[in-house]
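If your schedule permits, I should be very grateful for your opinion on a structural question. The matter concerns a single protein, recorded as an amino acid sequence and a row of backbone structure tokens. Could you please explain, in whatever detail you think fit, how the structure tokens follow from the sequence? I set the record out below, with my sincere thanks for your time.

——
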Amino acid sequence: MSQRNDPRPLPPEIYQRRRITAVVVLVVVVALLWWVISSLTGGDDAQDQVAQTSESTAATTAGSTAAASGSAESSATSTEASRLASPSASAEPSEPRGVPDEVASKTTCELDDLQLSVRPGAPTFRDGQQPNFFLEVTNPTSGECDIDLGENELKFEVFTMDSGYTRVWGDTDCNSPTSTGRLRLDADQSRTFEMTAWSRTTSSPGSCADRQPVGSGAYMVYGHIGDNTSESQTFNLA
């Protein structure tokens, strides 16, 4: 008569190791399948999406910083009559932006060579807040620039947007220019000028007796030095 040998149950550690091994194998198989499917369908899309998200986040952060800076600059209040020019040499030379090779290689600088960039002190000025404006002037040539601001006025102008393209104000209509004298810029050097406060009233050249308050809405500002004019920038009055 034969005797039956019943196998003894394995220790729990063995079963646990087998389960762990099975899970690891399953994860590896799923990873390989995902990699194959991703390669066939173009796996760069996910990377592109991550890159776009990073760029969007950086742009949002930069925009928030700029808006905060603009709000801080526009917090100071003063009257239009007591405005002053605030020229400041850049700490480091600005890189020429979109400068043709023939301009960048010039060893002389003329008024038309200057790059003008205007901006308001804030995207929106609240009710009662007097707008301020900045004009950055850059010499994109390889030579020194020497401009007589007495002959070529540095000025700002504001036009309406909501009710047609109408000039409503210029800072030299009723006051002297924000800056006079000579503007000297080395190659690639920039300087920024500020018009510290607009009284939010209308004006026209030589007509300052009946200045009317302007309404809320969208406006655009230009900066000028003589016949050289910047591109416009928009802002709102609340």
Summary: The longest helix spans residues 12-41. The first strand starts at residue 88 and ends at 89. The two ends are 106 Å apart (CA to CA). The chain has a mean pLDDT of 77.
